[in-house]
Amino acid sequence: MKRTVAFMLFCGLLLWAAGASEAGKSEPKIDAVAPPNPAEGTLLTLSGSGFGQHAYGRVVAFIVPGVPLDRERDDGRGRPLKPVLPHHGTPFPIVEWRPDSIQVWLTSAQPGQHDLAIWDGPKARVSNEVTVTVRAVPPARAAREAGKPYVWLVHPELASPGQELDLYGDFPAPDRSIYKAAVSPLGAPPKVTVPQMLRPLELSGNHARVRLPEKGLPPGEYYVTVVKDLFRSNVKRVIIRSTTPAAWENTSSLPGGDTVEWKLVAAIRNVGAEGRQLDVLGVHFGPNQTTPDGFKRAVVLMTAPQLKARKAHYIDAHVPIPDELLLSLPLPEVVSWSDTRIRVEPQGLIEKGAVYVVVQDARTKASASNVVRITPIALP
Questions:
Q1: Which of 19, 223, 268, 290 could make a disulfide contact with 184, Cβ separation 3.0–4.6 Å?
Q2: pTM assigned to the model
Q3: Is residue 15 exposed (0-12), middle (13-18) or buried (19+ Cβ within 10 Å)?
């Protein structure tokens, strides 16, 4: 009898916890978005009510229209296709989530008019929809002045307090004692605000690495400039978030649609003190090369013909690549491994031709990431 009562109380507690969890997911209402006509890469703010203290797994995304039930479709061979329900597109990374406001980073948004909403699943829209008009803005490139530092790329552009940033560009006469990175809130001129001054952890003629402070940078957009004595570089942007990255932000898809563990965003060649090294940039690589189950990851290089010949083997992330199909380019030596950057030293300089990089499971030879092309640092 006592066991039965205890079991019933336990079940009741579970039901109460589930109900409390669902109760935390209130019905959100979007009143306004700012700016109403953003450009891609803008920090978009949703104002309203009922958003809740946390996202609880919800996402903010554009609506992808469905195909009505009364519309006949076929696959081109006369075979009918099922109707498609409205669903959401790729979610936007959440920078900050509050009960009355949400900030998202508007990445990969095509110019034009879109309907935006909050979703609790691919097809479960839980808020009203608002219209956002995305502007097409051509990329701007600052002029480069002799003797002054120049920043070409900041990675990651979306970062958390305490995270390390990699800056690529041109840093004449690199000396850690005279170089600093200045981080200032966006919206005020960098010469007016009092910036956070960061000493470089690493510095060479074309690369610098700094660590953001743990405190003092609330969520939002910031300027990043490199300062050398009295000289300032051009301005780049970084977004500081207060949220934990969602699982989908750390993965990517292969051509066949299969999801792989890591997302590569770039591979920059000829970096480091002697210009011999290659930086593979991405997210969520983990603290070291060895996986929790004790196996190592390998960085694999390939040429364009090799990529074309072996494309089928990268479509399914779970299909091992046989040893006889391993790429002929030697595996580079891993110099350092961090959560957002892997630095390797190829056996020979990569100067000409299209060369690509992928991260593999060293044991199974299966792809652990998407494939990106290796590029040089582009200076004006």
A1: 223
A2: 0.81
A3: exposed
Q: Can you name the residues that pair with 155 across neighbouring β-strands?
A: 166
For residue 204, the enclosing domain spans 150-240
CA torsion through residues 168, 173, 179, 183, sign: negative
* Secondary structure element (H or E) that encloses residue 226, with its range: strand 220-228
β-strand 207-211 against 112-119: which pairing, if any? unpaired
Are residue 230 and residue 253 in the same domain, yes or no? Answer: no
Which of 240, 263, 293 marks a domain boundary?
240
Are residues 86 and 198 located together in one domain of the fold?
A: no
Residue 182: other Cβ atoms inside 10 A: 21
Hey, is 39 helix, strand or coil?
strand
**Confidence grade of residue 68 (pLDDT, cut at 50, 70, 90):** low
The whole-angstrom separation of Cα 114 and Cα 132 is 5
* 20, containing H or E segment: helix 2-24
Q: Could you tell me if residue 41 is inside a domain?
A: yes
State both tokens at 239: 């977004």
DSSP 295: P
Partners of residue 355 on adjacent β-strands:
303
How far is Cα 23 from Cα 164, in angstroms, rounded to an integer?
37
285 by Cβ neighbours in 10 Å (0-12 / 13-18 / 19+) ranks as buried
Overall number of domains in the chain: 3
Q: Residue 93 is part of a domain; what is its CATH number?
A: 2.60.40.10
Looking at the structure, do residues 61 and 175 belong to the same domain, yes or no? Answer: no
- CA triplet 149, 154, 155: central angle to 5 degrees? 150
Specify burial of residue 317 (Cβ count, 10 A radius: 0-12, 13-18, 19+): buried
Strands 277-283 and 333-337: unpaired
> Do 203 and 156 share a structural domain?
yes
Cβ 200 vs Cβ 210: under 8 Å:
yes
pLDDT per residue over 112-137, tens digit each?
999 999 999 877 889 999 999 999 88
Contact 380, 141 (CB under 8 A): yes
